[in-house]
Amino acid sequence: MKLLKTLIFLFPALIMAHSNQDLQTAYQQKGTNYQPRTRHIEGGKAKFTNHLILANSPYLLQHAHNPVNWYGFNDEAFQLAKQQNKLIFLSIGYATCHWCHVMEEESFEDLIVAKSLNENFIAIKVDREVLPDVDSHFIDISQLLTGSGGWPLNVVLTPAGEGFFAGTYFPKNTLLAKLKQLQNVWQHDQSLVLKTAKNIKDALREKTISATKPPQNLQSLAVQNLLKNFDEFDGGFGDAPKFPHEAQLLMLIDEQMRRPSNDKLNAITTTLNAMAGGGIYDVVGGGFHRYATDNAWLFPHFEKMLYNQAQLAMVYTKAYQLTLNPFYKRIATQTLDYAIREMRNGGFYSATDADSNGEEGLFFIWNTDQLKTTLGADFAQFQHYFDLSDTTEFEQHQVIHLKKIDKIQASDFIKIDALLAKLYQARQARNKPLLDNKILLSWNALLLKSFVSASNFDDKYLSVAQNLADFLLDNFYKNTLKRVQIDGKTSQTAIFEDYAYFADALIDLYDAVDNEKILIKAQKLTDQAIHNFWDKQKFGFKISNNKRINNRKEIADGALINANAVAYSVLNKLSARTQDIKYQQLAQQLFSSFSTQISHALNAHASIITHYNAKQQGALSSTLYTYNGKIKIQSHHRKITINIAKGWHINANKVLQKGLIATQLNSSNLQEVHYPKAKNINLSLSKDKLAVYDGKIILNFSLKSAKFTLATLNLQACSDKICLPPQQIKVPLN
Questions:
Q1: Which keywords appear in this protein's UniProt record, sorted alphabetically (predicted)?
Q2: C-alpha–C-alpha distance, residues 399 and 362, integer Å
């Protein structure tokens, strides 16, 4: 027994390693419906089975039968690298990544490449959507070494797990040459490799930077800076490939709501019209593709990600609130309905692939013969609304998109929808792209927030939001918070973004349904995030606690709205709703820790700037809190509801003494306001009677014109013994 314990201590990989029999058993347990993804088939079975067969990630299982002997990102692989003193070849991708599929087919299914990797390296595969913290760490290394990053991301590490070489897609011959060079350097000059790896590790260490006091007009400056990159012809910011950059659009909309101008409105409408009218939007089935490969948004990279649906639905919902343009409501609704119809199974799946039948975009594109066959006599009408010119040609087909959006009337959409229904029905008979059936907590939380926001114009989404919240709480949040569910099995410890996005969405849901239990859950999640991820020395939240990576703190937006920015908002919201000042103090520390970084690159930090502006100037929300939560204000359906905490009151609209601040709603677009009857009371701080409102009151109003209206609500909160300073609160009325 003592000898066994000694062996385990010296060689822990001995008891961790999985035998070939273990892998074959796992393969057999997949069942008869399991189809190996490989060209190496003998007798109806996969010739090769590697350690990824033990995983449940769809992306890892795609590679489970490559001839490359892949491992997951786990102790078994790293112990083996140390034990054999081999370099680690780490490859990161995701299930719906087109170029990941290309590299798999060219290289990882190739026997010569597999031989090189298996003999000289320990090969590790990572699903970036399951382990975004790991992905972020190695993207940082790639950017340090090459100035860029992307997927597939391939990084070579020392046996100790420290990166020193990185690249994205490599053709087979290039990859083989790189592998040979790297192995040669490791054999003959390990000191050079170790020195390079140490320099990179040192460069990744967080440096202490003094705080910068932000200007009062931080968001206005950021928007001015953003507009310098605006593409006046095609919308968006910068050149192709064009991504939606939802955080920047939300900041731009927020600024336009506060300080309207023609240039900001033009940037918003031009961009949103171009995206919704371009090929990046799936006009047949609803929802957005990940990005456009051209400046005009016509040719998408055809994968569809859940996080894009969540964030772009929010963008178009806010744009509808700003402009009251029914086309934006239509796009938000169709995007959410697409997710409900095609991505939901309790929670919502992660993505669909760009490829079907081995070809990119084949499921989504049409040729003229297919259109004529499907539409029959309606083809002529289809040509009236949709662009079938040479400018939309993709692989001898067309990417379907509307033309002249600004000239389409509401009545036209009745005809358009009838045409699209025929195409949708025909398309459903095609071979569908691969569905990534991971249910990710963080992405679902983003979608939950969008459903709550959309419930402002359609109550059905509030019911969907409540059901989703119940599912996530029941399945992901028992003793500890989990991150991933696949085939009904929840796994993977949650990272910081899961806590931040989920708490934020639950607070929004609490505001909508006024269920105290939901707020308690959000507060508990936030407290746990503080305990697990808060940097007590330098402040801010770490991305995770993974011991194998540099757990740095991030504040810049990426494909997802930044989690620290969301947490800043969560902390301020909790402070207002719970009257616990510790959350506000943490929020101040968080912003201060990133303030210099933010000031040096405004465009990269739209989310934190928007939330900082909301704290300084008041949030633009249908539910607002003031006086540390003593006053709750809700604006909805031509009425404002004010809930006043017990023991407090506000002055009535018609006060009985001069000098008192009357409750008053002001806007140049107000037609009339009906105030409730006042209550006349005597208080110890005044000998005279006071006209006040307490408890719950409702202000009914009407507008002169149907347009976005930001009103000012003047009020002053008082108790029996003290009056607090008067406030002017910005309240959106529609």
A1: Signal
A2: 10
